[in-house]
Amino acid sequence: MQRKKIPITAIIMALSGLCTITAQAGSEQTPQQWTTYAMEAGHNAYYVSAFPSVSWTFMVPGSNEINRQVVRSVTTIRDLVGFPIGVAVAHGTVYASNDNSYLYALNAHNGHLLWSVNAYNQLMSTPIVAQAGSHEMVYVGAGNSVFAYSHAQLFGASGAQVIRGTDVSAIEAFNGQTGQREWVFHTKGEDMPTPTYVDGKLIFGNGDGHIYALNAQNGTVLWKTAIHSFVSMSSATPADGGRVIVMGGTHPSRIYAVNSSSGKLLWTVHPEDIFPSSGGDGTWAAQGNIVAGQIEIRRPNQAKRMSSSEELAINAQNGRILWMRLLGSGTTPPHNKDAVPDIADGMVYTGSPVTHNEYAINLQNGNVLWQAHLPAGMKAAPLVVGKWVIQPTGSGAICTLNRQSGVLTHIYHNRSGDFGPQNGELIGKTYFIGSNAGYMEAIPLHEIVG
User: Fold this and answer.
1) Nearest in space to 287 (alpha carbons), one of 329, 254, 319, 241
2) Which of 13, 60, 131, 247 could anchor a disulfide with 234, C-beta 3.0 to 4.6 Å?
């Protein structure tokens, strides 16, 4: 295992006075496993427990030393030190992937570093935590968004197989207690999307045009299904009780579903006018046998730099589109073009990086209950708790809206960087989120909602 020595004074600001509480003491107040992106298939990462209100900040080494006169691009800073995706919280530990190639395990109560390990390429997947064999395992996907020149040339060539990702592309498994590397499964393309854990299997799409199922205990291949699209950031979503796994791919831009047991391709959906890179960007949410997700479309009459956000619901069993709802148009975002939805109590809550609006949509019929304009665009799944919808945004502001009316009730102005696809997780009374600037934070819920 590769460990990084980090001065405790440089990485921890313990603000809560709870440093004497151990992770073991609080393990029953956090989930015992974390099996999919944003904790559960609907992506409402709220775990009801007695976990207390704590406040701490963990700083990635070097994040507070970056010379902003030299490194002016926030995207470059994110790629150097950013926490690009939501964390996993299990057994009193926060497992956080970072673009600096390190997986960090932090004490959930005080932010103290328990261990760190180098995966040798950028980590953009939420860690998956599950019992495999005799002990707890943590799984992450390593990979980057780079195209080798030979594959970049293939864009636009009909039927060409484009592989995304260079250097080390792999799914890696670590002992949850020690950080010891247990096994590595290498792939030809990047493994940036988050896998899902179903019945002892890790299922994921990646940059080489396949969906894989691995034995979670030893990393051996159980099945492998060719879809020909590369999957960039579309995490695997379990639907229909885990029997169906849904994700999107790019080149061609499609939505796919496979049987989790056999890997059989169940259906493929090609939405009309979908933006070329949109399919592989968005992660779908599921409730029962319905999946909902966002795509980017460009109508033939739209200007070159303009596009529209569209929300869809699909029957997960047969691929039938149940409804499509045009959310609005605007300037095409430069990177991830689709926001991740949260399904809670039969409603779809989502933002749009195009319109900068937040929406509440009826899952059954696609009717929009309300929409509200926010001060910045958003890509991450919001979180629903009680009467609130909590949405992190691209400016670093965390916006709280009234769940019934959409009225903006409070803005938490984060001083530790902005947010992209990073969704927040609420464990008891504490909200956990990492920023593009390399800061992992535990924030009391009352400060978020005001």
Assistant:
1) 241
2) 247
